[in-house]
Amino acid sequence: MKLFKNRGDIYIPKSEYKKSKEEMILKILLIFIIIFTVIFIVLLNHKYKNIAQFFGEGEVTTTQIAMEEEELPNISGKTNFLFFETDDRKETIHYIILLQADKDTMAYKVCSLSPDMKIDKQSLFDIYKIGGGASLQTKLTEYFGFEIDNWAEFDNSSFVDFISKFGSMVYYSDEDISFSGGGENDKYTIHVSDGEQNINGKELSNLLRYYSVEKKQYGLENELVLSALTQLLNEENYENCDSLFRLFIKSSSSNITVRDFENSKNAIMIFCLKNEDITVYSTVSEYNKKNILTQQSVKQIKGYFSK
Fold it and tell me: pTM of the prediction?
């Protein structure tokens, strides 16, 4: 109980006074926060197009900028590539692949050829022994009647080292695969489980060889190549494309030059940044008993790869 000193003194309980003071402080803080928020939003809208740009300020890469549709360059044309892998002694071809980058329709087109395929009674490996990748390029260009612009040749070890720099990829197999084979100086083993799994560069190379040489399942070989293209040519690897190209030059024999690479930079960027939107086509090569392409198969390949 409070004792008044003088008549007319006003009594305010201590607890209520404290509560009133706290409420006043909270109200002042709330007003300050509201004013600060309004000013912040006005400045944000004035300087940045969106909140993602604000948080990425100072860390926005050229790739992220290029992802905006209006800033991507225009590309056009079609380029045909011939790609193949040999053993380390270059005594056999493991697999050989035709690939087209169609910049008009944003598409990859792939056809895996048999290394035993014959042209004028010569196998592709026999043609390769005469003059390497350039001979294969010339002979296949004449045979199909469309221009093969570039070729690249890897031995097994070099290809595994090169493709491993791109990282792993997801592969779906319809079956368990367990196989060991190859020549005395060219042995390989492949173990793949049924279903979806990550595979590395060595497993990719061995699977391509397995489908090409052992199983002769060129459709599955095509699908594997297309999966590798659409997964490994991605935004992250585009950022490293200069160093990857330098490694490509060291690892392969090819007619692809630094000028070719620089002239293709826009196309490489778009195919990498928009890899999920790329259309893919597979044409399966078919052979008669003499390892010669059937007329229907030749017609289909021409239809896909003619420019």
Answer: 0.77
